[in-house]
Amino acid sequence: EYLAPCIYEGEGEMLGMATVRRSSDASPETAEQIEREVHRFLDECYRRARELLLAMVCVFCTVQIATLCTTVYLHRALSHRAVALARPVEIAMRALVWLTTGIAPRQWAAVHRKHHKFADAEGDPHSPYVHGFWQIQLLNYFYYRREAANPDTIARFTRDMVDDGWDRLFSRTS
């Protein structure tokens, strides 16, 4: 290799810490090459750290958008009809739900309404009292998907909702 060995020699004690002097038999050209390699390595580490930070920020923002849309649009507006959203806001939130979670709004509303109908009793699709705390914490996705695929649940708990063309195209709840 082109990297020369470095030898550290002790020069005594200063406040309980050894002071050292670096010595090397490397030529100035080799020292320059080592310096460039160290800078290249540090620049690459910095670049990768920035990419990782950007990815983490994107994930954080996506999760926040998904949570907001789930809370406001799926939960309050669709499931409970407690909030009336302006049509452009509803369309934007529905699109964001599809993009960030892949959830079909009508299915989510049906499963949530069934959950309220049978809250923590037999028939609740994701009750920790019925199915067990760890089962729901670790496997809730599968409990949700199973119930969301049940056409009887969709028909019974979302009679007031009709699939439009976008729902038929993206959600397949019809």
Question: How would you characterize this protein structure?
Answer:
By secondary structure, the protein is mainly alpha-helical. The protein has helices at residues 28-79, 87-100, 105-117, 128-131, 133-148, 151-157, 165-170, and strands spanning 6-14, 17-24. The chain has a two-stranded antiparallel sheet with strand order 1-2. The model is unreliable at 13-21 (pLDDT under 50).
What would the keywords be for this entry?
10% strand, 7 helices, 174 residues, mainly alpha, 64% helix, elongated, two-stranded antiparallel sheet
- Mean pLDDT, to the nearest integer, reads 86
Taken in chain order, the helices and strands follow as EEHHHHHHH
Shape: elongated
Low-confidence stretches: 13-21
Largest sheet: 2 strands, antiparallel
Helicity, in percent? 55-70%
* Structural class by SSE content: mainly alpha
- What is the count of β-strands? 2
How much of the sequence lies in strands comes to 5-15%
Main sheet strand line-up: 1-2
Give the distance, in angstroms, between the N- and C-terminal Cα atoms.
Answer: 67 Å
Q: Over the alpha carbons, how many angstroms does the gyration radius reach?
A: 30 Å
- Count of helices? 7
